[in-house]
Amino acid sequence: MRARTLGSTRGRAAVDRVTDAAHPIDVRAVVKRFGARSRPALDGASFVVKSGRRACLLGPNGAGKTTLIRILTGALAPTSGEARVFGATPTEPAWGVSRRRVGVVPQLPGMYRDLTAREYLELVRGVYERGDVDRAAQRLGLTRKHLRRSMAELSGGWQRRLTLAAALLCEPDLIVLDEPTVGLDPVAAREVIAMLREATAGRTALLCTHNLAEAEALCDDVVVLRDGRVVLDDSIEELRRRAPAHAAIGVREGAEAAVQALRELAVDARVDGARAVFLATDPEANLPPIVKALVDKGLSVFECVATPPTLEELFLKAVQTTAQDTNAHRDGEELSS
Fold first, then answer.
1. Do domains 37-239 and 244-307 have the same CATH topology?
2. Which residue from 134, 152, 153 is spatially nearest to 144, judged by alpha carbons?
3. Topology of the domain covering 244-307
4. CATH architecture, domain 37-239
């Protein structure tokens, strides 16, 4: 297939070098408008997903997430800028090779009502020209009974398993997941997340989701879109390192006594049930001297726990900060006009 697409051994070698050396995803200043005068759905979005990293694409409704996924899969062309997958765009000869390295789990499974589940997997295998249908089906728990049924006869959870089996059939280097658990009941969603955790281990992945708990369970990095722009692009680990942790201290004398003593130490604490809680920017460095100071004040400390911020808290902070900056910028423009 490569020989027919590229036309020469030299062409194949050139394409292989590009696709092997490039980042799996490289989005460069992408703008997308759906009309000359319309507000852009994407407004200069740029980010990279490096090999072996699992990134989640987050953002409020209308942020441009689905538009970006469609551009990355070749379903849409950007108005300007470029989105490269393994170094290629849909307009370049290397695209065919690059695209065959990508498995896609769409938000809604494509319904080929006249095809059985097995026929659908065989169709996908023919497109990619590789893969073991039975192995992919077994991996996702699809039995012979499921494979004999038409796609429309399968429940939502089994349809999602089928689309995941199709995405993994070619053993892709990159998996793109667009809201993989949307519409599923909690039990089915939990099962799909467990399967995705196993399927994405050791692979590059881009997960587009509104479910922050799902993103936190599956991903290493986070890219946040707002109004078509990337407002945050970092690893979850680094974001947590920079963000303050939630610290809780319990003393036998009660939470009020702990809060009063902490405030005397210039720590802004408050009562939360039986504990005094506050933010600690560096728990390993900050908490031991705070505990010692409380003991020196005669308090009996029986608990000290630091909890890192959740992805939801990090996401909300990024979105709120960006909104405040945008409003301040607009107010400044109005004052200067």
1. no
2. 134
3. Alpha-Beta Plaits (3.30.70)
4. 3-Layer(aba) Sandwich (3.40)
- Helix (H) / strand (E) element for 20: namely helix 9-21
Q: What is the pLDDT of residues 309-325, one digit of tens each?
A: 888 777 777 666 655 55
User: How many C-beta atoms surround the C-beta of residue 13 within 10 A?
Assistant: 11
Tell me how far apart the alpha carbons of residues 85 and 5 are, in angstroms, rounded to a whole number: 18
Alpha-carbon distance 276 to 257, whole Å?
A: 9
HSE of 120 in the Cβ direction (CA atoms, 13 Å)? Answer: 28
Q: How far is CA 180 from the centre of its chain?
A: 11
Going along the chain, which residue ranges are E strands? 25-32, 42-49, 54-58, 80-85, 102-105, 174-178, 204-208, 221-226, 229-235, 245-251, 270-272, 275-280, 301-307
Separation of alpha carbons 63 and 158, rounded Å: 30
Residue 19's pLDDT is 53
Asked whether the predicted pLDDT for residue 48 surpasses 90, the reply is yes
Residue 46 and residue 29 in contact, taking contact as beta carbons nearer than 8 Å: yes
User: How many angstroms separate the CA atoms of 228 and 315, rounded?
Assistant: 16
pTM recorded for the entire structure: 0.76
Helix (H, G, I), strand (E, B) or coil at 158: helix
**Range 24-46 average pLDDT:** 92
Confidence of residue 105 (pLDDT cuts 50, 70, 90): confident
Segments making up each domain of the chain, as ranges? 37-239, 244-307
Say how far residue 149 (Cα) sits from the centre of its chain: 32
C-alpha span between 180 and 253 (Å, rounded): 49
- Of the candidates 62, 63, 82, which has an alpha carbon nearest to the alpha carbon of residue 71? 82
Confidence at 11, pLDDT banded by 50, 70, 90? very low
Phi, psi dihedrals of residue 250, rounded to the nearest 5°: -115, 135
